[in-house]
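S.,

Sequence below, as promised.
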Amino acid sequence: MNFDELSKEQQIMVTMRKVLSSIIREITPKPGEIYPLSEQTVEDIRMCLALIAIREKELTEAKGITNLDRPHFVDEPQATQTVPLHQIPRQKKDQ
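The prediction came back faster than expected:
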C-alpha cells in the first residue's frame, strides 16, 4: 500500500516508527562503548514502538486487511517449492 493511500493516523504511526527506529540506529554505540540512554528511556522507547505496532495492527484490521506475513531467516527451509514452468509436463488432449 502506498504511503499516500494511508489514513492520516496510519501515516503518523508509520512516520513515528521510522523516526524512533532511525534514532535508535544512530545512537547505538559500537561494541564496548557505553550506551547513551538510561534503562528507563530504553524501556519507554520499547513501549512506544509496541503501542505503535498495536495501533497499526488495529487500523489495518479495521480496514479488513489481515497481515499473515511473518519474518523468516534466509537459511530457514521454505514450506513451498518453486517449480519452473518448463518442468511441468503438458497433458495431451484426447482426440
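Residues 40-69 form one domain.

Coffee later?
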